[in-house]
Amino acid sequence: MLRRREQLSLGQRRPLAEDQGKTHSSFGHGNASGLFSLGCARGGPGRLAQHEPRAQAALRPPVQSQPSKENPRPTESPGTPGMSSCGNGRNDGAGDASGWLLPPSPLHFPLSLLTRGYFSIFWGSLKLLSPFPGPAAGSVHCKSWRKIKNMVHWSPFVMSFKKKYPWIQLAGHAGSFKAAANGRILKKHCESEQRCLDRLMNDVLKPYVPAYHGDVVKDGERYNQMEDLLAEFDSPCVMDCKMGVRTYLEEELIKARKKPSLRKDMYQKMIEVDPEAPTEEENVLRAVTKPRYMQWRETISSTATLGFRIEGIKKEDGTVNRDFKKTRTKEQVTEAFREFTKGNRNVLNSYLNRLKGIRATLETSPFFKCHEVIGSSLLFIHDKKEQAKVWMIDFGKTTPLPEGQVLQHNVPWVEGNREDGYLWGLDNLIQILAELSQSEDLH
């Protein structure tokens, strides 16, 4: 035992094989130097501090004594890397709990690094080492391990980053988002969206839009910093519904007429959905203008028939479906919502109540009355715990009206009136969910 303690105190990787016939498991990558123990005996100096959070006590670096004439070489205090410290200062497994060895990777990092998400990366590579032999072996070790694992695993700074999913982007330009800390996301900066979010933070619609935390520069790029709407959900299901009777601005039509820009990529998208859609001239050019493509796309979807369309759905298992380009009828949309909610009446009712709240608030919103809301979406999110909410998102094309002008949002669009049909689409959406929630085959 003496020989074993001497080895461990020098930080060597494992005790001799002849030490009580026991061998010590190695850490995952073969590097056991710097390991330390959290399990200690009652009242001993190696025990974690009783008057502070255990996880923070584990994060503190080992205490070293100062060199002196009698002791020219500093020594580490009990509980330091390379040793299992018990209350009596011995390393023989005595006391009421032997130590479970944990790798230094996660627990030796400063708190500032842990709170940036590094902890979850290293925690995933955690390997449990064998406990030191002693009378406390067996079930006590399992309990000790579970306690230690839980107290670190459920710490607030760990939970902020322990995601079971990446941030899902169902619509828009790929790569527009980056994950951020503290329950936030970064979206590529858009001046128009920033102005809208600033105003919405002081509008009655504030409870129905993501919280806005200003802009930030990261890696040389500017981003709008917003609330991560998925943060409070466990393995969420997500649906993006694009609202309104059009997803392009009137200015885009005017610009296209003055200076047409042919898009070969949009022509390709068109023929992939419907090879018969392009005109003879477009087939010759093998290109279409953006407004032409957007108008065509809306005629084949429920944007034209219902005032909204489904852009995409992400299920709880992570699979994503964006094949809703031809989902046009009320019956098709109803079936999509039935599948999305798995016929869960509670989830449907939560969505319905949230939509009604949004509808009532829009009627009193100064922001809504004086803005043309184009390309905005309603984001539906629910999880297995039956949490379900809806938010208004995407305000990059939402533009203020000339002073003194207001919109009704529920009348047909004619070029020049700037109507967007948002309320017409929302009313149809509410009606569809209300009828679906009354179905007898729900659970």
From TrEMBL:
Region (Disordered) residue ranges read 1-97
Entry's Gene Ontology cellular component terms: cytoplasm; nucleus
Give the enzyme's EC designation. Answer: 2.7.-.-
Keyword Electron transport assigned: no
Q: Which reaction does it catalyse?
A: 1D-myo-inositol 1,4,5-trisphosphate + ATP = 1D-myo-inositol 1,3,4,5-tetrakisphosphate + ADP + H(+)
Q: A single GO BP annotation from the record?
A: inositol phosphate biosynthetic process
Keyword Kinase on this protein? yes
Q: Per its record, what are the GO molecular function terms?
A: ATP binding; inositol hexakisphosphate kinase activity; inositol-1,4,5-trisphosphate 3-kinase activity
Q: Name one Pfam family in it.
A: IPK
The record, for SUPFAM superfamilies, names: SAICAR synthase-like
Which keywords does the record carry?
Answer: ATP-binding, Kinase, Nucleotide-binding, Transferase
Q: Which family does it belong to?
A: Belongs to the inositol phosphokinase (IPK) family.
Protein name stated in the entry: Kinase
The record's gene field reads ITPKB
